[in-house]
Amino acid sequence: MAGEHPCYTVVEVPAGLTGEWLASAAWLDVPAGARVLVDAAALETAEVEAGPLAAAAEQLAARAARVAVCAPGDLAFGLARQAIQLAGLAEGVVMAVFREREAALRWLLGESAAK
After folding, report:
1. Residues near 5 by Cβ (< 8 Å), separated by ≥ 6?
2. What are the two backbone dihedrals, phi and then psi, of residue 16, each rounded to the nearest 5 degrees?
3. Which of 16, 18, 38, 19 is nearest to 27 (CA)?
4. Residue 40's closest CA among 63, 21, 55, 65?
5. Are 36 and 68 in contact, with CB atoms under 8 Å apart?
6. pTM
7. For the residues of 14-73, what is the DSSP string, one character each?
8. Which value, in Å, is the radius of gyration of the alpha carbons in the chain?
9. What are the φ/ψ torsions at residue 44 (nearest 5 degrees)?
10. What is the pLDDT of residues 22-81, one digit of tens each?
11. CB hemisphere CA count around 70 (13 angstroms)
């Protein structure tokens, strides 16, 4: 679910995103102030309401220094953007969504602005 790299922590979103997975909050087990890459590349289905998804984005943004979401698929990209907006987060400040992992890592590690 979560893995650490020297400069950031990875949270892997399962292929089937559910409210139960979000409620488990295992994805929130990241070091305080960490840079976090949310890898949603495997996401195929989502059975979760917008409220809990937005709350999850807000909680992760409050815990981490920076969060980049790698969401190459349309479903993952749309859900991530929706969660950020519903949470009232300024996209590109603490949390940003990218279709390509390389762009997400560049932003996460401070090498470029969010696009």
Report:
1. none
2. -115, 100
3. 38
4. 21
5. yes
6. 0.90
7. PSEEEHHHHHH-GGG-S-TT-EEEEE-TT--EEE--HHHHHHHHHHHHHH-SEEEEE--S
8. 12
9. -120, -35
10. 999 989 999 999 999 999 999 999 999 999 999 999 999 999 999 999 999 999 999 999
11. 20
